[in-house]
């Protein structure tokens, strides 16, 4: 897709540090990593976000994320990894080409931002549940 930075990377018009690639996806180092080895998995075909992904492709990319997470543990000494995927600007998506973040976590590594847990009542949880069923 024109004007998509990740499509340009996939087409080789912009350089990237590729960790892994196959017929469905590429995995490359994030240029602004949360921790060393932070990797992005992206489909070769342009998809805006998860809503445009089909089951087969999503499954293949998730298995690529698994492969990268295990590689981070084996080669980088990570003791865990986060798999994060943002959909829409409100969710923090800054590049509108689907991608999965695989972020290696190290002993004594940095704290990464997350959500602040809330404490809804049972009634409030039931109200949300009723809307979702
Ligand atoms: P998002 O916020 O959309 O979930 O994540 C986008 C990620 O893409 C960010 O972590 C950002 O650092 C990374 N990124 C943006 N532009 C480039 C680029 O040109 N090359 C690489 N390798 N990563 C990029
Ligand atoms: Zn794209």
Bound compounds, each kind once, are:
guanosine-5'-monophosphate, zinc ion
Largest sheet: 5 strands, antiparallel
Low-confidence runs of at least 5 consecutive residues: none
What is the residue-mean pLDDT, rounded to a whole number?
A: 97
CATH class: Alpha Beta
- Rg from Cα: 17 Å
Encode the helix/strand succession as letters: HEEEHEEH
Shape: globular
User: Helix amount, in percent?
Assistant: 25-40%
Arrangement of strands in the largest sheet: 1-2-3-5-4
Helix count, DSSP H or I runs of 4 or more residues: 3
Describe the structure.
There is one protein chain. The protein has a single domain (5-132), classed as HIT-like (HIT family, subunit A), CATH 3.30.428. The protein contains three helices and five strands, in the order αβββαββα. It has helices at residues 5-10, 55-76, 122-132, and strands at residues 18-21, 25-29, 39-43, 80-84, 100-105. Strands 1-2-3-5-4 form a five-stranded antiparallel beta sheet, with helices on one face. A hairpin with a 3-residue loop joins β1 and β2. Guanosine-5'-monophosphate binds at residues 5, 14, 16, 28-32, 40, 86, 92-95.
Summarize the structure.
It is built from 3 helices and 5 strands. It is α+β, with helices and mostly antiparallel strands.
Present the secondary structure layout.
Layout: H1 5-10, E1 18-21, E2 25-29, E3 39-43, H2 55-76, E4 80-84, E5 100-105, H3 122-132
Antiparallel strand pairs: 1-2, 2-3, 3-5, 4-5
Guanosine-5'-monophosphate binds at residues 5, 14, 16, 28-32, 40, 86, 92-95.
